[in-house]
Amino acid sequence: MAYSAQVQRLMRRIESIPDAIRQDMQPSIVKSAEELAGMMGHLAEPSRDTGALIDSIEVTPPGGNTPAYSQPGGERTAHELEAIVTVGNHAVRYPHLVEHGTANAPAQPFFWPAVRTLQKRINNRINRAMRKAIKEHWSNP
């Protein structure tokens, strides 16, 4: 797959990060993704009919594969500094209809409100973990 010059430059910068720093950052990345998934489940509670939508919210840890029919984007492999929160699976293919609504059903957003609510907290947690890891490992590769 061809990437833009900006993505290629970002990937080169990520690959230049020492392995010890990457390893130290992974727990905070996974913790943030799990917190986000929990908030999504909480916000999706009013739309509960069978509970299948809430049960389909899944955190894919670094290096893992997302479910084949998940929203957004379907199956893919997470980078080593990435945890992915997805909604949907082979049986639950309607998360976008709940999130955005249809002509016959009002929107009951749960995905993007959770992202917007926790975005600053997640960024701060990851930045703290990165600063701590850099202080510990950068001068001692």
Summarize the structure.
It contains five helices and two strands. The model has no long low-confidence stretch (mean pLDDT 89).
Write structural notes for this entry.
The protein has 141 residues and is mainly α. The protein has five helices and two strands. The longest helix is centred in the C-terminal third of the chain and has 27 residues, at 111-137.
Shape: elongated
Helix content: 40-55%
Strand order of the largest sheet: 1-2
**pLDDT averaged residue by residue:** 89
The separation of the N and C termini measures 32 Å
- The topology string of helices and strands comes to HHHEEHH
Unreliable residue runs: none
Number of helices: 5
Structural class comes to mainly alpha
* Rg (C-alpha, Å): 17 Å
Question: How many domain units?
Answer: 1
Q: What portion of the residues fall into strands of 2 or more residues?
A: under 5%
Count all strands and give the number: 2
* Biggest sheet descriptor: 2 strands, antiparallel
Ordered list of secondary-structure elements with their pairings:
Layout: H1 5-15, H2 19-44, H3 52-55, E1 58-60, E2 84-86, H4 95-100, H5 111-137
Antiparallel strand pairs: 1-2
List keywords for this structure.
mainly alpha, 52% helix, 141 residues
